[in-house]
Design brief:
The chain is of the alpha+beta class and 123 residues long. The chain has 2 domains: 1-89, no CATH class; 91-123. The protein is built from 1 helix and 6 strands. The protein has one helix spanning 93-122, and strands at residues 14-17, 22-26, 31-34, 37-40, 62-66, 84-87. Strands 4-3-2-1-5-6 form a 6-stranded antiparallel sheet, with no helix packed on it. The relative contact order is 0.16.
């Protein structure tokens, strides 16, 4: 699965933040329960990125989502993640730069083809 949105979260699922902390989704009450407290679900945007992140905070973007448990003894066990569902895959700065260069090359090829056609018509 390439994308996972906040709407797809269900109570009992586990999310793992980029900082390594795990939270249990309690969607019915709009919170993410952690072993030492709660985070409000409204702090995540639709792509599961933290909307209230400050420079001095650890990374609270969601890294991965796990099925978790809804109705059994494991529901509050933070180590019991359940089945893997999704992992964020972000491009490195080098990959992003390569994408930009490849797009520029494609645009230049298109311009060169158009100029070649103009030259051929005039000849």
């Amino acid at each position: 699965m390439t994308t996972f949105t906040k709407d797809m979260l269900r109570t009992g699922m586990r999310i793992k933040y980029n900082n390594g902390q795990v939270a249990i989704v309690l969607k019915d009450i709009g919170v993410l329960g952690m072993h030492d407290g709660f985070n409000n679900l409204s702090h995540l945007n639709d792509s599961l990125k933290d909307t209230e992140q400050f420079d001095d905070q650890v990374d609270w973007d969601v890294e991965s989502v796990w099925k978790g448990y809804e109705n059994n003894a494991k529901v509050l066990n933070f180590k019991a993640l359940g089945d893997f569902i999704w992992k964020r895959e972000e491009k490195s700065p080098e990959q992003l730069q390569l994408d930009i260069l490849l797009k520029q090359i494609s645009e230049l090829n298109t311009q060169a083809t158009k100029l070649q056609e103009i030259i051929n018509v005039k000849a």
